[in-house]
Amino acid sequence: MFEKIKDFFYDISDIFVSLLIIALIFVSVSWKISDTLSIDIDAPITSEIDQEQVDDPPVIIVTPEEPVDETPIIEDPLVEVEDPTPEAPLDLKTFTVSEGSTGYSIGQKLQSEGYVDDVNSFVKRLIELGYDSKLRAGDFKISMSDDLDTLIKVLAGQGR
Predict the structure, then answer these.
(1) Beta bridge partners of 139
(2) Which CATH class is domain 92-155?
């Protein structure tokens, strides 16, 4: 009789411990998922390209006094002319990413230190480039003048 009661309590304690472990796993996974997916979907995406530049079509310049060349000169407002002056060296500072940091938490840290303007645009661009699962922990040399794509590639260990 006592053996059956003892077996019953052992079985109940095993079930209780199993349910407790399942509950802890569920809470930790849902906490990580909610932290990762907590971006503001309604936030507007800011574009670095001026809309006025996009609307202007390329202009072809041909003067009647000169013989017409087979390759016309095209002035495209979106094409940047390289400056012959050498670039100033980047002011690189060390940025540390902790082990287990999510893309959103890295974006928050980048925003708080002034590297990016908006966490949501950082996370969206991170996903667009496919680097959302490639970010690494460690110390990285980045500059305040780095664009979003360069920051993401450096933090993913792809170099500058």
Answers:
(1) 96
(2) alpha beta
Cα radius of gyration (the chain): 28
Neighbours of 152 (CB within 10 A): 26
Q: Give the helix/strand (H/E) hosting 96.
A: strand 92-97
Q: How far apart are CA 152 and CA 47, in angstroms?
A: 17
Condensed to tens digits (0 to 9), the pLDDT of residues 84-94 reads 555 555 678 88
Q: Say whether pLDDT at 83 is over 60.
A: no
Encoded amino acid at 105, one letter: S
Backbone angles phi, psi at 29, to 5 degrees: -70, -45
Tell me if 77 sits within 8 A of 93, measured CB to CB: no
How high is the pLDDT of residue 62? 45
pTM of the model: 0.45
pLDDT of 129 higher than 60 = yes
Distance of alpha carbon 77 from its chain centroid, rounded?
A: 28
- In this prediction, residues 62-82 reach a mean pLDDT of 54
Nearest to 128 by CA among 45, 64, 61: 45
**Domains of the chain by residue range:** 1-38, 92-155
Q: What tokens appear for 144 in the block?
A: 């305040």
